[in-house]
UniProtKB/TrEMBL annotation, chains A, B:
Record carries keyword Oxidoreductase: yes
Species lineage: Bacteria, Bacillati, Actinomycetota, Actinomycetes, Kitasatosporales
Keyword entries, A-Z: Oxidoreductase
Record's protein name: Ldh family oxidoreductase
Keyword Coiled coil recorded: no
PANTHER family: MALATE DEHYDROGENASE (PTHR11091:SF0), OXIDOREDUCTASE-RELATED (PTHR11091)
Domain of life: Bacteria
Family (UniProt): Belongs to the LDH2/MDH2 oxidoreductase family.
Amino acid sequence: MTEDNGFRIGSEALWELARDTLTDVGVPADTASLVAGILVDADVRGHPSHGVAMLPVYVQRVLEGGILTHATPTWKHLSETAGLVLGHGGFGQLAATMAAEHCAESAHDHGMAVVGVRGNNHIGMLAAYRRQFTERDVIGLILNVSGPSVSAPGAQFPTLGNDAICLVVPRRTGDPFIVDFATGVVACGKIREAALRGEAVSTEWLLDNTGHPSADPKDLDRGGSVPVFGGYKGLGVQLIIEVLAGVLAGGTVSPLVNRQRQRPDLPMNCSQLFVGFRTSLLGDTDPDALLHTLDLAIAMGYKNSPPDCYFPEQRERLHTARALESGIDIPKALADRLGWARRA
Amino acid sequence: MTEDNGFRIGSEALWELARDTLTDVGVPADTASLVAGILVDADVRGHPSHGVAMLPVYVQRVLEGGILTHATPTWKHLSETAGLVLGHGGFGQLAATMAAEHCAESAHDHGMAVVGVRGNNHIGMLAAYRRQFTERDVIGLILNVSGPSVSAPGAQFPTLGNDAICLVVPRRTGDPFIVDFATGVVACGKIREAALRGEAVSTEWLLDNTGHPSADPKDLDRGGSVPVFGGYKGLGVQLIIEVLAGVLAGGTVSPLVNRQRQRPDLPMNCSQLFVGFRTSLLGDTDPDALLHTLDLAIAMGYKNSPPDCYFPEQRERLHTARALESGIDIPKALADRLGWARRA
């Protein structure tokens, strides 16, 4: 039992709860299992913004038609090393899983591969698709174009998606190396977590609908926006994602994507790109040793000891250990919305 | 004649000067022509940090052995869609040109391609390799791993390269769309430009060799560093480049790369990755219209009029027009160092 009178639960039991919440609104069992697994994975890794906190949105979208529960992704185009999946407005995780599998398999067999997804919905945390790559000794680059919630440097209004980029690198021994982040100075979900907890946010995270800095997390879904990270260079990263996952893969860009909360009645029509490179594609290389060198070098750049988490996956590893040992906290507001309160 | 008593010169004449400066120290004519062209291209585009201001460094490195003037890059590995070029410590532009050509040609023929470069030297502004891609209707992604001059978020000392990333997107009509930037909050060359002009820099650009913010541009080459852009997310971009251009392509990472100014006697042993995707790889798409949508959307995000340059290539287009009309300014300090002063 946590302080806010929510509850704490093991990952397996949380997965069952999430799955049942989806099947209760008519989602087929296989789809519900897959989607629930991807959400709980985010909670385990310490990113609740991409975890079961998404369920109220998914449920609303299922009920209003934004997610077509019985849509099945199909291949529009498929060659040995390139493919395009059409999501048909179903759960985004279905098309994304299909794309990640094929991309990793093809890259393993042929050295490199690229698979796009078009006409899709929210696919959750990009790092959730890591195993398809790491199991096959393939480096995976995953890009996502989302609906407009991010403002350009110095701009007042949201015109760009909180697009995401993820790199998955298998290590020969130990956990994979993963970089996974969105282009907003903060993930929208982190602002919504604060709203759920009734807490204020940093005014560097949020502009209200008049373009002024705001500490009220509710302003995000009242026409507010999150500034792009890193100023003009961050905009550069954003535009690289827009071109690769939008223009190349999706025939779209984020200003044309439907925001999932604002239009629960419409598929987002968002798109993704998966690129795979076999680790050995360009010759012998030792990712473990080189990543270790990077880690050590960065740590040595601090005059005193480095921060607790200065290198990707350190934070996620801590959270995973904690979640597997002690379970995952579900805030009361979320439990109430999902009718989970009785499980406490 | 500019204020600082340097001189103004047309791009063609500047190219000849640059070429002759290189042949004077024994660089073969073909190589000197190529390298001079890539440097002058940066000056024309308004990035003098990557322009002929590099010549004093190149000349010193040629004289001391860091650049082997007669080295010829070779293919270590070559298939239809993947290749690895060995630079053998020659001018980086040679191996990079070979890699860009093959990558773009292969991607045009087979849909996608990837070419790495290993054992290389400085290759100049990444956008200089745009024509290989745009002429073949291929989207090009170019990544470079450099020697350590960048400090991690909150760190005091330089441990990472000012790595660079560039995306080249051909438009059906008009100039290509290009994103091109390095991971430092500012390009090291911009700090050195300020040093040449005897000007102070923003203390957000630079830490001195004790890890304190500094406004003295000379501190950069006295063991100082440039903070990575965008904090922890910027570090994420850095690490994506390290893995793709370093680990995958180069069998290296930036802490292992020799800094060209600190070790003029040694090849940098840096590496690059070139990835090409045929624009039509995943189906019909209209890059011109989608890029126009992005441009308009971003402009509309500003309550009043947007800044003069809010979208990539706007600044470069202005500079190119100005350079072609009025010529390029060469600062006196640079002209003196290169013995060009007599041309004023």
